[in-house]
Amino acid sequence: MRAMIKADTRAIAFAFFIGAMLLRFVPHPPNFTPVAAMALFAGCYLSGVTGMVFALGAMAFSDFVGNSLGIPGIHFYGPGTTLTVYIALAMSALVGCTLRGRTNAFTVPAASLLGTGIFFITTNFASWLDPMMGYPQTLAGLISCYLAAIPFAGNTLAGDLFFSALLFGSYAWLTRPQSQSLVYAEAKVSA
Questions:
Q1: Confidence label for 189 from pLDDT (cuts 50, 70 and 90)
Q2: Looking at the whole model, is its pTM more than 0.90?
Q3: Rounded to an integer, what distance in angstroms lies between the CA atom of residue 95 and that of residue 44?
Q4: Which of 44, 64, 116, 187 has its CA 20 to 30 A from that of 82?
Q5: How many domains would you assign to the chain?
Q6: Residue 89 to residues 27, 56, 125, 127, 186, Cα–Cα distance (Å)
Q7: What is residue 102's DSSP assignment?
Q8: CA-based angle 23:89:122, to the nearest 5?
Q9: CA angle, corner 166, sides to 77 and 191, nearest 5?
Q10: Do 106 and 80 form a contact (C-beta atoms < 8 A)?
Q11: pLDDT value of position 103
Q12: What does the DSSP 8-state code read for residue 132?
């Protein structure tokens, strides 16, 4: 039984992984993507290397394809900023590890908010340091960088919360005990 649940979890995670990659190519508001939610989910339900591959792979593959094809909005930044984006996603996966065995309507959004905060703080600091971004290396430049990022942060937060609810909710529904499905089906037939 335990092996079946593990296989089911991997299959579901793989479907989410493919979806996270593909949704980056669909027109969307900037930063409204499922990638951070995928990292959170992978950290929660997958272990070790598998979790990190799923967490970072969707972003890496779609970044590579998007950059190669010149798709607007999908590109690499300076090396430091790009590395920081991936580190922030890995940190979201680590936050997901804290959810193991404790997913509910409070913990998942709270973890998603924490991941969004980590992403905002780290990636915008890296953007400020990145000469390609053009911010002066002063306190005023740092403040300007964070202020310019606020509209993107709103989209990131909305996307992270939406896709976390979608991924974790879908997973809960897909892996619910079959007895609940049978009770629901029987109740529907007898009604």
A1: low
A2: no
A3: 8
A4: 44
A5: 1
A6: 22, 7, 15, 16, 43
A7: -
A8: 120
A9: 165
A10: no
A11: 94
A12: G
Question: Which is it for the CA torsion 71, 74, 75, 77, positive or negative?
Answer: positive
Query: For tokens 């964070």, what's the residue?
Result: 146
* Cα dihedral 8→12→17→19 (10° resolution): 160
Average pLDDT for the chain: 86
Worst-scoring range by mean pLDDT, 65-69, 71-75, 80-84, 147-151? Answer: 71-75
The amino acid occupying position 18 is I
| Cβ-Cβ contacts under 8 Å for 14 (sequence gap 6 or more) | 54
Residues 143-165 have a mean pLDDT of 95
H/E element, 99: none
CATH number for the domain including 62? 1.10.1760
What is the extent of the structural domain holding 116?
A: 2-190
CA angle 50–105–98, rounded 5-degree value = 40
Model pLDDT, residue 138: 96
SS3 at position 113: helix
CA distances from 132 to 78, 81, 129, 165 (A): 7, 10, 9, 35
